[in-house]
Give the backbone structure.
Amino acid sequence: MVSRGGRPDLAGTALPLVEAPTLLLVGGRDDVVITLNERARDQMRADVRFETIPGATHLFEERGALEQVATSAREWSLSHITSTRAESAAQVNSRCGR
């Protein structure tokens, strides 16, 4: 899961129940949302990474900000798709006695 400038804190007591690997992306100049995302991250038990986009505000309107978001989201997604496939293959192989 990728959250761009979102408010995961609004999930409240459900945050520790999140199982999906989660990337929290926030504009580096969005102080309020940075704090809220850091607090949410600290409550999550899943694989979670918090990242700021330097110089970006809440809507990521600054030149190059959305491109940085896209790059981070792509790298995060690819790393977790690859690891999920490897884990699934290992589970199948162990069930088959390989």
Notes: The longest helix spans residues 65-95. The chain is about 45% helix and 15% strand. The beta strands are 2-4, 22-27, 48-53. Helices lie at 31-43, 65-95.
